Amino acid sequence: MSFNGSFEHKLDSKGRIVVPSCFRDELGEHIVITSMDQEYISVYSKENWQKAVVSRVEENALKTLNGADAKRIIMSLSFSVEVDSAGRMLLPEKMRKDVSIVQDVVIVGNTNKIEVWDSARWHKYIAEKESLLLAEVHQLLLGL
């Protein structure tokens, strides 16, 4: 399972966005969203959430002095949501505020998850990073 591409969307009046159809099958109806990255909302299928986050948190929680506290914070910043029959998911108001999403969003595929960015923040990020990162990407892909 791998997500790629980027799509521009708008929040509706209830704080929902339409999940791009190319992502829906892979995500499934029951998903987990989190704002622990503080710049965007991460969206995982239940399966990828279990593999990417929960298993690591459980495995590493007791290895550091503050592991149990970190586990508590990670889980408190995460919500299980459903994709409705129209392909929409609700982004909770607090989570939208945490990452400064007002109305226009960019939905970005990022390997095992998708990310929901405020559109202005995404375009600023790309403008700052793209030229630097393209050189690194070129180096990574030279052997392919």
Shape: globular
N- to C-terminal distance: 20 Å
User: What is the tally of beta strands?
Assistant: 8
CATH architecture: 3-Layer(aba) Sandwich
Main beta-sheet strand count, sense and barrel state: 6 strands, antiparallel
Secondary structural class: alpha+beta
What is the number of helical segments per DSSP (H or I, 4+ residues)? 5
Strand content: 25-35%
Strand order of the largest sheet: 1-7-8-4-3-5
Compute the CA-based radius of gyration.
16 Å
Unreliably modeled segments:
none
Under the CATH scheme, which class? Alpha Beta
CATH topology-level name: Chemotaxis protein chec
| Proportion in helices | 40-55%
* CATH homology superfamily: Transcriptional regulator MraZ domain
Tally of structural domains: 1
Order of helices and strands: EEHEEHHEEHEEH
How confident is the prediction overall: mean pLDDT? 89
Short recap of the structure:
The chain has about 140 residues and is α+β, with helices and mostly antiparallel strands.
Structure overview:
With 144 residues, this protein is an alpha+beta fold. It has one domain: Transcriptional regulator MraZ domain (Chemotaxis protein chec), CATH 3.40.1550. It contains five helices and eight strands, in the order ββαββααββαββα. The strands form two sheets. The chain has a six-stranded antiparallel beta sheet with strand order 1-7-8-4-3-5. A hairpin with a 2-residue loop joins strand 7 and strand 8 (113-118). The two termini are 20 Å apart.
Protein topology:
Elements (H helix, E strand, L loop, with lengths): L5 E5 L5 E3 L2 H7 L2 E5 L6 E5 H15 L6 H10 L1 E5 L5 E3 L2 H6 L5 E7 L2 E6 H23 L3
Antiparallel strand pairs: 1-7, 2-6, 3-4, 3-5, 4-8, 7-8
